[in-house]
Write a structure and sequence with these properties.
six-stranded mixed sheet, 13 helices, 30 strands, 25% helix, binds guanosine-5'-diphosphate, binds magnesium ion, EC 3.6.5.n1, GTPase activity, hydrolase
């Protein structure tokens, strides 16, 4: 295909504004899949994505479309996730494109992640085509949304496509706009190969599959390639495209999007953002924009059954292959035994990985409360990065601690400004700015500790604004805070996996609340279990789990054996998510209790 007839674009939007549905309609309209093959949101292939209705991994598909000029165009669509945790995925996908469809819900208007994604697209110099979606909704107000796009983003919205992915309105107009407005790729077919890896995937049959956008040169089977960041070499066995299933073709040429399979031995050798080049005729330098990934949130993952340790390691390695942003390393806990410290982009990411481990790999897991990375300056001049509260040195050895801060952007109807401010203040936020987007919606920015965001900021933001607020945040800096470690002792023994780092002013309150919460969570036993919250040697709260009065089975009057078995099975079920620490059984919920304290 002539490079002039290639168009590469992404769809960007706030979550739920209709990216995936628009992608479905484009695939359908261009006849890439027959009606029978179409399933709603075909690009959201992962079970979890379907169930939660969100896109986790970017996906790519090649469409063919005959434009108004009668010429056939190759249109490569890359679907991106819209959630705040997956900015890195979005950014890599955008680097593979020349244009972006900016989808805005006609009833909702611009939301926090609409803006975040637009800024990313502008950073990559993409041609942005505004699409106002869901115009079928009774509450749709396309003119107001167009006005917002012009006022807030500064884009010309006069030619915005008015669409309803649901009703199939505006789909042809979107395709025509892509053909007419998105620039064709540039690049030199005869130059040394450089191809951007924007995603990768592990396939049980083919092994590692790298998703690439060819910037210069060509890729053909038999070529010897090198990845420029990891410096690993491999021989190409297959190249192909996404329709959206993998389809082999003879070569991938300049401007095209597709996949490469080869003798890639180690899964970790394929890094998203890396550049593939010809090992015999390498490009002078890698493509710009590669950055390593910095997880923002860490937690411990432990197998409930310690014999599952190797299985957990295996599963994490496999997941990492499909998710360059997942980090993990072995860790041991006195309470929980052998497990892994895992780094995530954010809480949703953490949730998704946990669920995939349990669902796809059949693992029973105990997870500890998430933590940010603290920079601890010791009195002896040493600087430590602490991502696990249990590893915080004793207070006497600490000079001061810095914690990560973010710029949090909240967009909300103006009725809720007070609620947002109250919550943000309580979360140690510092007010930065407030701007009206239109007569009844405002954008508020706060400088706020990341640890407070990961506690329960988003949930509470949603509930105090009746679901109307949208949130985006980005790491800005580290600042010194007065922080202490809050320890929990059960039966007089400290349980390292329950320790948390909290602000000194909130320590006493959180300690009391946590002890009280745990009292309701830890099951009764034949003996009394004291629960203590302590800062250093000082106990600040104490609760007791009373001893069990009588054998639960006594209720079953001996006779009914099936009822007895049912009860035992039920107990066993309940035990599934528990870990024995000394003589005390701690359920999973206990490790997350800190997140549920206001
Ligand atoms: P994404 O998160 O941006 O990928 O959004 P989805 O494509 O998953 O859509 C979110 C929800 O909006 C789904 O329930 C869709 O069925 C619905 N939706 C998408 N487009 C339209 C539309 O044009 N009209 C209406 N009424 N609903 C839509
Ligand atoms: Mg989606």
């Amino acid at each position: 295909m002539n490079i002039k007839n290639i168009r590469n674009f992404s769809i960007i939007a706030h979550i739920d504004h209709g990216k995936s549905t628009i992608a479905d309609r484009l695939i359908e309209y261009t006849g890439t899949l027959s009606k029978r093959e179409m399933e709603a949101q075909v690009l959201d292939q992962m079970d979890l994505e379907r169930e939660r209705g969100i896109t986790i991994k970017a996906q790519a598909v090649r469409l063919e479309y005959v434009g108004k000029d009668g010429e056939t165009y190759q249109i490569n669509l890359i679907d991106t996730p819209g959630h705040v945790d997956f900015t890195y995925e979005v950014s890599r996908s955008l680097a593979a494109c020349e244009g972006a469809l900016l989808v805005v819900d006609a009833a909702q208007g611009i939301e926090a992640q609409t803006l975040a994604n637009v800024y990313l697209a502008l950073e990559h110099n993409l041609e942005i085509i505004p699409v106002v979606n869901k115009i079928d909704l009774p509450s749709a107000d396309p003119d107001k949304v167009k006005h917002e796009i012009e006022e807030v983003i500064g884009l010309d919205a006069s030619e915005a496509v008015l669409a309803s992915a649901k009703a199939g309105i505006g789909i042809k107009e979107i395709l025509d706009a892509i053909v007419e407005k998105v620039p064709a790729p540039t690049g030199d077919e005869n130059a040394p190969l450089s191809a951007l890896i924007f995603d990768s995937h592990f396939d049980a049959y083919k092994g590692v599959i790298a998703y690439v956008r060819v910037m210069n040169g060509k890729i053909k089977p038999g070529m010897k390639l090198r990845m420029m960041v990891t410096n690993k070499e491999f021989e190409v066995t297959e190249v192909g495209i996404f329709r959206p299933a993998l389809a082999n073709i003879g070569e991938l040429s300049t401007g095209e999007v597709g996949f490469v399979v080869g003798s890639i031995k180690n899964v970790k050798d394929v890094r998203v953002g890396d550049t593939i080049t010809d090992a015999l005729k390498p490009a002078k330098e890698p493509l710009p924009g590669y950055r390593g990934i910095n997880p923002m949130v860490y937690c411990g993952l432990y197998p409930m059954d310690s014999s599952d340790y190797d299985n957990l390691k295996d599963a994490l390695e496999k997941l990492q292959l499909n998710d360059a942003s997942l980090l993990f390393e072995p860790e041991t806990s006195i309470a929980l035994g052998f497990g892994f410290r895992c780094g995530f982009l954010g809480l949703l990411h953490m949730d998704v990985i946990q669920e995939r481990l349990e669902r796809e790999y059949n693992l029973g897991l105990i997870t500890t409360a998430p933590s940010v990375i603290y920079q601890v300056y010791k009195t002896n001049g040493e600087i430590l990065k602490i991502d696990n509260p249990a590893n915080l040195p004793p207070a006497t050895e600490i000079d001061h601690i810095d914690e990560p801060y973010v710029k949090a952007t909240v967009i909300v109807p103006n009725d809720f400004v007070g609620a947002v401010m109250e919550l943000s203040q309580e979360k140690r936020g510092e007010f930065k700015d407030m701007k009206y987007l239109d007569v009844d919606r405002v954008m508020i920015t706060y400088h706020i500790p990341l640890s407070e965001i990961i506690y329960d900021y988003f949930d509470r933001l949603k509930s105090s604004t009746r679901g109307y607020a949208s949130l985006d945040y980005e790491l800005t800096d580290y600042q010194t805070s007065i922080l202490v470690k809050l320890d929990i002792l059960l039966n007089g023994e400290p349980v390292d996996a329950l320790s948390v780092i909290v602000h000194k002013d909130k320590a006493a309150y959180r300690g009391r609340q946590l002890a009280e919460k745990l009292k309701g969570i830890i099951p009764k036993q034949m003996f009394e279990i004291p629960i203590q919250a302590a800062i250093g040697n000082k106990v600040i709260a104490r609760e007791t789990v009373k001893a069990m009065r009588k054998d639960v089975l006594a209720k079953c009057y001996g006779g009914d054996i099936s009822r007895k078995r049912k009860l035992l099975e039920k107990q066993k079920e309940g035990k599934k998510r528990m870990k024995s620490v000394g003589s005390v059984e701690i359920p999973q919920e206990a490790f997350m209790a800190i997140l549920k304290i206001d």
